[in-house]
Each structure stands twice: as structure tokens, then as C-alpha cells.
Amino acid sequence: MSPTLVLVPPQRDSTADWPARLMSEVPGLTVIRPAMEDAVAALRTADAAYGVLPVELLAATTRLRWLQAQQAGPPPGFYYPELVAHPVQVTNMRDTYTDHVATHTLALVLALCRGLPRYVREQQTATWNPDWDPGAVISLPDATALIVGVGALGIEIGRLLHAFGVQVTGIDVRPEDRPGFAEVLPVEALDDQLPAADLVILTVPHTPDTEGMIDARRLGLLKASAFFVNVGRGPTVNLDALDAALAAGRLRGAALDVFETEPLPADHPLWRRPEVLITPHVAGVGPHEAERRFAVLLENARSFVAGDNLINVVDKSRWF
Question: Which of 19, 195, 237, 318 is most buried, with most CB under 10 Å away?
Fold first, then answer.
């Protein structure tokens, strides 16, 4: 009996031709893209699935062995206890839009370091108010950056910053030497490194260990002249604590692409802070995203049918 892969609804329009393409590329694989009302029946005998699998759909499966997540960091609630306990192997879309997010991060960093958030706001009122104080900007060759999370994204951000002359240090659960990094240290070194950084850049996924990791205590360790940037996942940063630190002048500014609650509520004070740059979770936007995701799914589908090892396998208990 040929294995069956179900594209769990709802699906984007970009996946409409995926069943035909996958079955053409992977002989022996049956691919189904059911409507929502047919999902339970389709998953009942599925061997593999692509997408988000809620607990009620997981309960309907009888022989599921592989689940391909649609993102590198799936949405909150993706790794619920029943899924973690289930024998199904989960893979993710790690490194499919690293270049886009790294470029966006560099844009945020450059904007902060050159004082652009203030000038953009003054442009709206036709205010000509140049600041000639050398201290109004950060000279990148004189700056130190601490990148928290040195996976594919953190490595690329570090490489780009190093090209600008920034001294880069990394923090990661798997500390290894990386090109462009002065050193990569274990998570236990985070508190010791925060006070030395001019730029703190968070790229970590949302996991049980990273949820709320940047709180009032850790923000209090940063020097008042530092900038904070988060392009990882929103739940890793306590936004009320960040706002309080900015209000008290304990932090120079921040740039955020991800938030604890999305969309960021319209009444949140961060919207109106002149030292804050906000983008609405768009760092990953760029060309070729759908084809890159298809390429990962195709490679794993081939390996699954052949009985070979899958790529981008997740430790479900750690969510990455």
C-alpha cells in the first residue's frame, strides 16, 4: 500500500498544485489536499501530514508517522502535549527564509544606529532638525553585538554585521565556533554578556525555555545606550517590561518585528515611542518562499517513501 500525505486544511492557494507535483516527483506517494469537512476522513489513514494538526485531528489518525510543519517556528500551540507524546516525527521549515529575515534585521539595525526612526517621524511634520552630535549615532566598527540564537538566521546576521566591522558575540544552546563571531557562548553566559553589548539581537524560537526570557531583570542588565532588536518570536520578550525600560531611559531604543500579541494592540504605548521601530511580522517576506517550502517538503517526501532519514527534524519536547 502506497503511503499517503495529507495537506491539512486550511492551505494557501500557493499549494493548490502541490499534490500533482509531489506525486509526479515521488512515485508511490499519494497526496491529498482535502476540504476542511473532509480532513478527518483523509487523516484517518494518512501516513504523513503537512501543516498545523490540531489535537482533534491528531486523535483521528491511526498510522501517522511524519508531520511537516509549514514554518521554521510554528505558531503558539503547535507543540501541544498530545503531539509531543505521540510517536509521529515532526520536521520544520528551518532555513527557508534566512536571507530575507537577516536582510530585514540589518535594515532595522542600520536604521536604529543612524537615528532614522526620529527623522522619519519628523518628515511627517516637515521638521528640519539635524542632530550633529557624534553621539547621536552608533559607529558600527566601534560597536559590539550580542546575537541570542546562533542558528542559520543568527549565523547570517552575524556574518552581515561582521562585514560592517561590528564585533559579534553569540549565545546558543549549541555553542560552536562560527565565521564572523568572536565567540559563541552557552546560554548560561547570557547575563554576563548583556551589559557589554551595544546591540542585542534576539533570533531564538519560541520554546518552553525561551518564553519570557527577556524580562525586566534581563533588560535591567543592558546599558542605557544599547539598542534591542527582536526578529525571533514575540513570546520571548515581555513587552510591558520593555516599554517600562524605554520609559525610564534604561534603554536607548528598540526595533521589533514580532510581539507577544499579534497584531500589537493599537493602544500599546510602544506604537508611539519615538525611539522604537515597529514592523508587523514581515521580516520573512521575500521572493521564492513558496518554492523553498515545497523543496523541503519534496526532499522529505522522497526520504519518507524511501525509508531514509528526514531533514529538519524537531525535538518535540523543546519545540525546535
Answer: 237
* Mutual angle of helices 289-306 and 18-25, in 10-degree steps: 40
Shortest CA distance to 94 belongs to which of 312, 261, 258, 266? Answer: 312
Please, are residues 209 and 238 in contact by the beta-carbon 8 Å criterion? no
Query: Which CATH number applies to 4-96+287-306?
Result: 3.40.50.720
Pairwise CA distance, residues 251 & 206, whole Å? 24
Which residue bears the cell 546562533?
150
Closest CA to 297 of 67, 59, 55, 124: 67
Look up cell 525555555; give the residue: 209
Domain ranges of the chain: 4-96+287-306, 98-278
**Measured distance CA(108)–CA(173) in Å, rounded:** 25
Residue 194 · residue 200 · CB < 8 Å: yes
Rounded Cα distance between 277 and 254, Å, is 6
Second-level CATH architecture of 98-278: 3-Layer(aba) Sandwich (3.40)
pLDDT tens digits along 217-271: 999 999 999 999 999 999 999 999 999 999 999 999 999 999 999 999 999 999 9
